[in-house]
Amino acid sequence: KSANPQWREQFDFHYFSDRKDMLDIEVWRKDNKKHEELLGTCHVDITALPAKRTNCLELPLEKHPGSLLMLIAVAPCTGVSISDLCVCPLGDPNERQQITQRYCIKNSFRDIKDIGFLQVKVLKAVDLMAADFSGKSDPFCVLELGNDMLQTHTVYKNLNPEWNKVFTFPIKDIHDVLEVTVFDEDGDKPPDFLGKVAIPLLSV
Q1: Of 1, 65, 102, 178, which residue is the least packed, with the fewest Cβ within 10 Å?
Q2: pLDDT at residue 138 in the model
Q3: Residues 167, 153 contacting (CB under 8 angstroms)
Q4: Sites in the chain below the pLDDT cut of 70
Q5: Residue 29, number of CB atoms within 10 A of its CB
Q6: What is the mean pLDDT of the chain?
Q7: What's the rounded Cα separation, in Å, for the pair 9 and 11?
């Protein structure tokens, strides 16, 4: 019930500098559980923002009244990576030794927010639901930890996709839950949901 909402939420997106990406933002209104209405959209060209500083942006909503006030910072992030199975970052003995040293007892209070790393190897899915008329799906996998999100590539026309990717996340809260969701890519339409698993970090 507000025309001037304040959310004050922070989201971390992993942006790889070799890509030219736009940040797409949508504002929605909910009447009830069933009815939603798009109030406007805006776009931010990440490559045009100065790095290593917080940029305060007032973004007018396209074709709708109103604007969004956002703080966007492009900053180097250590520890986040996507790699092939054959070049697994924590598989390197030197890397493991450095991490063991970094998180040993005597260094445990050096940075309270730096809890550790989570490495996830996404190998394959088996017997997925067919989302297309052809009896196949175009599946990709999304990994979410807190407000961090990474995803695999899409394997087209396959119900038993193999991704063989390694994802490494820095852990900020040991009570977070790793959510792994499989979607079917559907062109310009929103992807179809194919399944999900949730793994509490405390169970790892």
Answers
A1: 1
A2: 94
A3: no
A4: 14-20, 77-79, 89-90, 111-113
A5: 10
A6: 85
A7: 7
User: 39 near 28, Cβ under 8 Å?
Assistant: yes
Whether the Cβ atoms of residue 57 and residue 35 lie closer than 8 Å to each other: no
Residues sharing a CB contact under 8 Å with residue 194, sequence separation 6 or more, in sequence order: 128, 129, 131, 137, 139, 182, 183, 184
Look at residue 96 in the predicted model and tell me its pLDDT: 75
Q: Is residue 65 within 8 Å of residue 72, measured between CB atoms? A: no
Q: Which domains does the chain have, with CATH numbers?
A: 1-77 (no CATH), 81-203 (2.60.40.150)
Check residue 89 and give its pLDDT: 66
Measure the CA–CA gap between 139 and 152, rounded to whole angstroms: 9
The residues near 63 (Cβ < 8 Å, ≥ 6 apart) are 40
What gap in Å lies between CA 54 and CA 10, rounded to an integer?
Answer: 13
